Amino acid sequence: AQTPSVSAAEQDKLDAVADQALQSDAYAWDFVEGLTTEVGPRQSGTAAEQRARDWAKKWLTAQGFANVREEPFMMKTWVRGVEKAEVVSPFPQPLTLVALGNSAATPADGITAQVVGFDSYAALEAAPAGSLKGKIAFISHHMKRTQDGSGYGFAGPVRWTGPGLAASKGAVAAVIRSVGTDNHRTPHTGGTSFPDGVAPIPAAALSNPDADNLARMLERSDDVKLHLVLTPRNLGETKSGNVTAEIVGRDPSLPPVLLACHLDSWDLGTGAIDDGAGCAIIAAAAQHVAEAGQPLRTIRVLFAGAEETGVWGGKAYAKAHAKEPIAVGLESDFGADRIWQIRTNFAAGNEALHKALIQAVERFGVEGSTAIADNGEDLTIIHDQKTGHVDLAQDGTHYFDLHHTPDDTLDKIDPVQLRQNVAVWTQVVGLLSNEAGPIKPD
Amino acid sequence: AQTPSVSAAEQDKLDAVADQALQSDAYAWDFVEGLTTEVGPRQSGTAAEQRARDWAKKWLTAQGFANVREEPFMMKTWVRGVEKAEVVSPFPQPLTLVALGNSAATPADGITAQVVGFDSYAALEAAPAGSLKGKIAFISHHMKRTQDGSGYGFAGPVRWTGPGLAASKGAVAAVIRSVGTDNHRTPHTGGTSFPDGVAPIPAAALSNPDADNLARMLERSDDVKLHLVLTPRNLGETKSGNVTAEIVGRDPSLPPVLLACHLDSWDLGTGAIDDGAGCAIIAAAAQHVAEAGQPLRTIRVLFAGAEETGVWGGKAYAKAHAKEPIAVGLESDFGADRIWQIRTNFAAGNEALHKALIQAVERFGVEGSTAIADNGEDLTIIHDQKTGHVDLAQDGTHYFDLHHTPDDTLDKIDPVQLRQNVAVWTQVVGLLSNEAGPIKPD
Ligand SMILES: [Zn+2]
Ligand SMILES: [Zn+2]
Ligand SMILES: [Zn+2]
Ligand SMILES: [Zn+2]
Q: How far is CA B294 from the centre of its chain?
């Protein structure tokens, strides 16, 4: 059996820098504090996202990263306009909502239509063809709070395809209950998509308290009328891009270790937890590994662009770099709360390394798992190359309180938990980048 | 010494209905659920406040209250318009804010000016005369979380008079850190006022995360420029009104017990905790007392109008009813969390009743106090008549997370704590309304 090639002396140094990161890492906070303050919201394909790339390149260069590069690509860009909703009758009052990405626009003076409520995606599916003609569909599917984020897989389809399904049954617009676990008046945006042959309709998410209120109205009346104004626009093709940078290894001929996050954010918040924190964590970890001594393999960080609107950056990177083998990929895109579990996809082929990683992070409160790491969104290249993958699973209990809302701001990051992330990443990336043998043998 | 006149049998009945209210009161929830769903926001002087009065009269009548009346009065009404803020340089990004009541308007296309930051009211006071000419003042005074709400007295002046003070030193606009203890992107509105001879300027509150962000920008740059659009309007004199109703006592010649709340709310939320809950609690308690048997004194509920914008309703009531003596007044206007303390203003003159009240509510976890009850906002008449007052102090630990924000919605009310309020009110109002002797002897 293979044994990890990291020497006892190297391991000691890595342990020490990881321990130090836990106590006093300042890189990650500096990054996310700076990005959210000096750039703030940075929606894909917009000038704000370009400012974020410029900011990130400057930061990476100042920290001493090598080969800091921007790799542009083109994408289709949708931007928010006016968004207003008002119950016209029988209980006139405004409701708070935000348009979903790819929503169609109403006329400037809006539309008024009767609301038909569905308490689940399944109930909408069961609605007869044509039954929503002229109506606004309201899909009020509750999301469950979970540590591993599995509630998103359960409730997510309401946002991803609910409006398209409503449109296919004749609805003139769709409003969904926010896919989120909080009860604040801060609705959750995110992309939606319409099936081929179905014309997009105006689609928006109500905050949970507003969805509760609309549901109570529908319990009292079967003739609730809603006035809706949504004026988003499609800008056509605009420029986005990835930012990459490296800690060059002692043997650059070996396939590198790829660390990914996404630099774009939705427009409502300042993108602190989604995904400023992820970029902060990976960049901080790369620096701490370098502080322990030049790693054997190159560590490449990928700040992907335009993840939120269709993983444009991850796909562009995979295409542009298809011929360059990657040893192993890791992504951070689930907030800034502590890492509770480590998974790999090479326990079968490289049990020794799998076990060494688990053992190395145990002191940070991270448990091992026999579950196979699944690809992060921006690791398209790892999927294409069927290469190594490590998942450092973060606690997602509170993530969907904030995800894609105006509330995704710096104050939501706990510096102590952020440093735990950096420490775990430092340890794991340190071991992987100093591993001489294949990470995931074929 | 006086002794309370309530018989043991009456006390037993009151104890029983209060215990029952703790377990299963449904009136209070029915009221606040209905009001927030069927009316929602109900700003003073607007058509929405009239809908609230109509709704309340219907509800009170349906519950069997006697003498359900509306007492109109005229008031000056200010309404919100467009509100937008954007940092122009050096870190372009939008900020979330809401106009404060009585704010002046900017031109429709806004104003752009340099921001001058003050980290306290005292720092603004220390700014030299004329030093803010052409600038936007930013007052970033943190509010402390307290159980008794004393943090509001400390931070409140920033909102009440901060913009006026900035205007007097030449500022073209003022933005304040929200007077609130949360960290959500839901700013806290509320009224502000300008001194005589000082022309109103545009005045708004940033959410706490936005105030944090602006403060971080000011740490980095002494030339932060903000673009501000606020287009509120003064509507002139419009109609508001109070709603009153009674449980008629066995001896209507005795001065009544007056229970007050306010029916208007700020426009951003649905006014669940401020002050739908207060009206719900007092109306529910009055009904439970009646269930124990017709009280000796009349219990009058006053749903005051237009409290938020200057206690118009409380003052109108005091003026219209100046000649009618009130025995004792109580107000509920501090949310829906549990009552933790009881205070009266008659411990000196009527110690027996003071002690009987304390003893009666001890089983609900309420403690007595030697502090003298201070008047509730809508109890102007109690102040004028120097008559009896009882304060049932609620736990305000979380109140200023929600106060005057879009987040003041039904889901924030804990039904268990709401019922504890109703139980304590039932007990106290039951004893007061069955007391034959003077409550607060001269
Ligand atoms: Zn993300
Ligand atoms: Zn996202
Ligand atoms: Zn109030
Ligand atoms: Zn208030």
A: 30
- pTM surpassing 0.95? yes
Q: How far, in Å, are A34, A268, B91, B101, B116 from residue B227 at the CA level?
A: 22, 18, 12, 20, 14
pLDDT in tens, B273-315: 999 999 999 999 999 999 999 999 999 999 999 999 999 999 9
**Residue-wise pLDDT tens digits, B387-431:** 999 999 999 999 999 999 999 999 999 999 999 999 999 999 999
Going from the Cα of B307 to the center of ligand 3, the distance in angstroms, rounded, reads 7
Domains of chain A: residue spans and CATH: 8-78+236-433 (3.40.630.10), 82-231 (3.50.30.30)
CA angle A279, A269, A171 (to 5 degrees): 115
Decide if pLDDT at A255 tops 80: yes
The alpha carbon of B28 is separated from its chain's Cα centroid by a whole number of angstroms, namely 17
Would you mind telling me the total number of residues written for chain B in this entry? 442
Cα gap A44→B327, rounded to integer Å: 66
Instruction: Specify the pLDDT at position B153.
Output: 85
Residue B420 pLDDT: 98
Q: What is the pLDDT of residues B382-394, one digit of tens each?
A: 999 999 999 999 9
Q: Which of B432, B363, B352, B419 is nearest to B391 (CA)?
A: B432
Q: Kindly tell me if the per-residue pLDDT of A131 is higher than 60.
A: yes
Neighbours of B161 (CB within 10 A): 17
- Quote the CA–CA distance of B213 and A406 in Å, as a whole number: 13
Q: Inform me whether the pLDDT recorded for A2 exceeds 80.
A: no
Give the dihedral of Cα atoms A101, A106, A112, A116; nearest 10 deg.
-30
Asked if residue A134 has pLDDT above 80, the reply is yes
pLDDT of B177 over the 80 cut: yes
- Give the span between the Cα atoms of A121 and A156, in whole angstroms: 10
| Torsion on CA atoms A158, A159, A164, A166, rounded to nearest 10 | 50
B contacts of A185 (beta carbons < 8 Å): 186, 269, 405-407, 409
Cα B102–B107–B112 angle (5° rounding)? 100
Calculate the alpha carbon distances from B264 to A130, B81, B239, B276, B411 in Å: 43, 19, 13, 8, 19
Q: Which of A184, A268, A403 to mutate to test the interface with B (most CBs of B within 10 A)?
A: A184
Q: Provide the token pair at B115.
A: 């921001």
Note the pLDDT of residue A295.
98
Q: What separation in Å is there between the alpha carbon of B246 and the centre of ligand 3?
A: 22
Query: In a 3-state reduction of DSSP, which class is residue B61?
Result: helix
Per residue in B191-217, is it b (16+ CB within 10 Å) or e — as a string?
bbbbeeeeebbbbbbbbbbbbbbbbbb
- Angle between the N-to-C axes of helices B27-38 and B47-62, in degrees from 0 to 180, rounded to the nearest 10: 150
- Predicted confidence (pLDDT) per residue in B346-370, tens digit: 999 999 999 999 999 999 999 999 8
Of B37, B96, B209, Cβ closest to residue A213: B37
Q: Is the ipTM of this complex over 0.90?
A: yes
Is B1 a residue whose pLDDT tops 70? no
Cα angle, residue A6 at apex, residues A431 and A287 outer, rounded to 5°: 40
Q: Considering CB atoms only, which of B40, B91, B94 is closest to A91?
A: B40
Residue A374: what residue type? D
Distance in Å, CA B314 to ligand 4 centroid: 14
What residues are paired with A99 via a beta bridge? A204
Span from the CA of A96 to the centroid of ligand 2 (angstroms):
20
Residue of B nearest to A96 (CA): B406
DSSP state of A366: P
pLDDT at residue A152 greater than cutoff 90: no
Q: Which residues contact A386 (CB under 8 A, 6 or more apart)?
A: none
The answer to whether the Cβ–Cβ distance between A216 and B37 falls below 8 Å is yes
